[in-house]
Structures are given as structure tokens and as C-alpha cells.
Prior knowledge:
metal ion binding; 25% strand; P-loop_NTPase; globular; 17 helices; YlxH/NBP35; alpha/beta; 4 iron, 4 sulfur cluster binding
Amino acid sequence: MQVLQAPSSPHLSIQTSKPPHLTWGLLPSVSVNSSPFSTLHFSLHSQKDQRLLWSPHKRFTSRAASVEDAVGDSSVSTGTAEGDVLKALSQIIDPDFGTDIVTCGFVKDLQIDEASGEVSFRLELTTPACPIKDMFEQKANEVVAMLPWVKNVKVTMSAQPARPIYAEQLPAGLQTISNIVAVSSCKGGVGKSTVAVNLAYTLADMGARVGIFDADVYGPSLPTMVSPENRLLLMNPEKKTIIPTEYSGVKLVSFGFAGQGRAIMRGPMVSGVINQLLTTTEWGELDYLIIDMPPGTGDIQLTLCQIVPLTAAVIVTTPQKLSFIDVAKGVRMFSKLKVPCVAVVENMCHFDADGKRYYPFGRGSGSQVVQQFGIPHLFDLPIRPTLSASGDSGVPEVVADPQSEVSKIFQNLGVCVVQQCAKIRQQVSTAVTYDKSIKAIKVKVPDSKEEFFLHPATVRRNDRSAQSVDEWTGEQKLQYNDVPEDIEPEEIRPMGNYAVSITWPDGFSQIAPYDQLQMMERLVDDVFEPSVQA
Ligand SMILES: Nc1ncnc2c1ncn2[C@@H]1O[C@H](COP(=O)(O)OP(=O)(O)OP(=O)(O)O)[C@@H](O)[C@H]1O
């Protein structure tokens, strides 16, 4: 195996198994992190001053275990009032991101009047439904108030404006929605709509702006489960857009509100109607759009998943052994589309009678799903007549009785969805970045521990689009020397959960799927050349 020095990155080297002149082909390469040795020692240093830029341990070194530790640290002044405030705040760690709130970019509008000791700032969180926003507010107040010169602290809380991770490629109707969550099941009648509706109202209760899209054209359940005053969708004749109806603060769109009853349509027609209904709706700013998916994993479901940039999926199942096979199909469909399944709800798992708990459908298929597919969360939802009755009455249980046992389960599901969506967004938006100081593209594939560096020219040369490779013959059109060795990306933007779009100085926009990036030659720290080669 050869190790080549990358000309533009003096502290990095390219690891490859081919001769130099072939190094820009799509080659399999060894992961830096696959060796326990390199995981322990791989690090990058600044060209200029040998400052440590990155190491697997770096982000953990400045963490404080608690506010008390933080205050201890912040007693050493940075020399400026602003520096002291930021230093104090940087000891508060967002547990979901594992990063401090200053690095997360939450601190905005910092104003300091040193003479009077007044400090004010805004904490802009990723979602208004953040389950620990009160903790952030309290700790931010505490750590800043403990600075010796501070007399008064004013913290205001806000949330980022609603927007998807990448808006440009989306239909206008979806450009102001932060997270789209599919609630899916592979069979009808397992309680998918019940979960979708109650999850949506739970998120709304947590402070989020929420919409529900009932994508079941054959048997829409939404008109039964909620009772909006206006039971018809309105049309904006000028813009030719659909205005959702609303119930208890949640925006609603369902074919059942289109005044057409149930539809008799073939698959492609259904996909067309769903697409039109979803993308021409004036949703306005939403933090979460819950999509009640049609049951199954056929063409309609696949098409819908391809049109909509889903952030995450929640799978609903029942405990029977047979359901496991169905759920597996659903998980595979989402996995193919790179949509993370964040939770499984095992519905109708038990009921209580005569002081005893009964499991009429058996036990354990949900936990089997969690184990086999690595889905992080499982929620057991009991059989409760109130849940069924509230579904039929048009008032979701979480609205009718927010303190009930079932409502508490939905609150836990809501927290899980909020945290997982925030994590996914953060992972996706920081998955591929360009580090100018070392002239390397850093890749951290979402949902994987793998982290590696690529030489920009290698990435550009490995473009597989029709502009670079003949679609029919596979002949390479872009030649090695067409790409300058010192090329640098102008912009890197995420494209859903599966790829990034990289804009180069010649205006070319390269779509680079993570799968492709993972196959390219990597830059490795030259300090460890010998051991990596061995
Ligand atoms: N845990 C539960 N306890 C009692 N009744 C329930 C429970 N979950 C769902 N139900 C009831 O079961 C019926 C089917 O539920 P729901 O409509 O949510 O299922 P679905 O999977 O969305 O069905 P479809 O695919 O046909 O739309 C409804 O009457 C609902 O109220």
C-alpha cells in the first residue's frame, strides 16, 4: 500500500492501494477509524502554529460536569467582558448534541453594559418544543450571574425560524417546514392514525407549530379523529394553493376534507393527488409536519417518501409475531431512502382488568425490532377504551385528558421525536464541511461513527454525473488534469440524509452521496503512516 503526500495539505497524506496516477478513481480504502490505533491517535494540527485542530478527544476536554464546575472554570477571566460571558455560557452542554451552547450557535444578541453590570442575550434553540429549554434558561442565568462584575442578567428564549435543512430544491409549499416526520405502519388498523394525531397534538402542546398531513387517500381517518369547525379545505384561487383547515392550533390537510369522500383511484393517480395536496398547501412556518402515511410499503409509499424530504420515521406495530415481518419491511424501505427510524410504537400491547395485566397478542415483537434494527426507542401503548372513544369523538386523547397514562406515553414519544429530529438535523448539517486551514473536506457520515478527511480535488475528480462520466459507455469525460490540484469548494450544502451538494469555483454543482464519499481515498495523518501501512 502506498502513502502519497497531498500537495495542498502538508500535514495530511492520501492513503491508497493504487499507483499515484490512478489515485483519483473510485477506490476502496481503509477507514481511518477502523483501526483502534488510529482512533486513539489520529489528530490534525494547524499548518501555521501546530495548534490542535481536531482529535477524537478534543471536544470532550473542555466540558464541565455541572454548572458548579462551570462557574469554577469561568472565574478565570478571558480579559474581556464578552469573552467572560461566552466562556461561562460555553460550560452549558446541549446533551443531544454533546456540544456547548456557544459552539451550537444558540447565543444571540449579546449586549453588555459593564458599567452597570447588565448582561442580556437571547438563546435561540433549534426548536420551540425543546424539552429542556427551561433548564437552559435557568443555567444560563446562573452561570452569567456568578461572574463577579455582573449585577443583572436578562435571558430571552426563542427558536430558529422554521426551515428545512435544504430549502432550494423543495416545492414552495415545503420550504418553511423544519422537520417532516412520517408515521408509518405496514398493515392497516394497527393504530397508525391514532399515534400520528396524538403525537402531533403532543408536539403542539410542547410549544411547536405543527401540521398533520393525512396521506391515506383510500381511507382518510383525520376527519373522524379531529373536529375542526371548517371541515373543507379552502382554495386560494389566485395562487392556486390549498389553505389547510385547523383544529386546536394544528393545521390539517386530508383528502377527507376535500369534499370528495373516499377515492377510487389507481396507484399513480393516488401518488399525483397526494403530491399535489401536500406540496400546494400553504403550510406556513411549521416546526413539525406529521405525515400519516398510507399503510404498506408499495409504490404509493415509496413515491411519497421520494417527494418529501423526511427527517425521520416513527413505525407503529402491534405485538403479534407476524407484525415483526411487516415492520422489517417498513424499516428496510426507510433505510433504503436513508430516512432514520427513530421510534417504534407497539400499540395495543396490553390491557388491565381485575387488577391484572393481560397481553392478548403476545409479547416481544417490538423489542425484537429495536434489537435487530437498532431503532433507539420503543414505546408500549396499552389498549384503552378512552383512546378509541376520543378518536371517534373528534378530540384526541392528549387534548381531552392531557394527564392520562396514555397522554404521558405520548409526551415521552414527543420528547423522543424532538430530540432525535434535532440530532439528525445537526448531524446532517455538519456531516460534510470544508476546513480551509488544512484544505480538507471533513466527512462525518450521519448515523455512523466514521469520520474522515478527503482532498477536495479527489472529490471533484470522482464526480459520477453525466458531465463527468458518459452515462451509456461509462467512459470518463472529466480528465485528471481538468481539475486543479488546489481546487477548493465554494459551498457545501446537505441534500436530505443521503448526500451533499458541493459548489465548485467553475460553478459546477456536484451531488455527492455519502456512499460515494465513503469509497474515496482518504487523507490520513502522516504521523501514523507506518502503523496504518503495516
Ligand atoms: N391503543 C388503543 N386502544 C384502543 N383503541 C385503539 C388503540 N389504538 C387504536 N385504536 C382504535 O383502533 C382503530 C384503528 O386505529 P387507527 O385508525 O389509528 O389505525 P390505522 O392503523 O391508522 O388504520 P388505517 O390504516 O385503517 O387508517 C380506531 O378505532 C382507534 O380508535
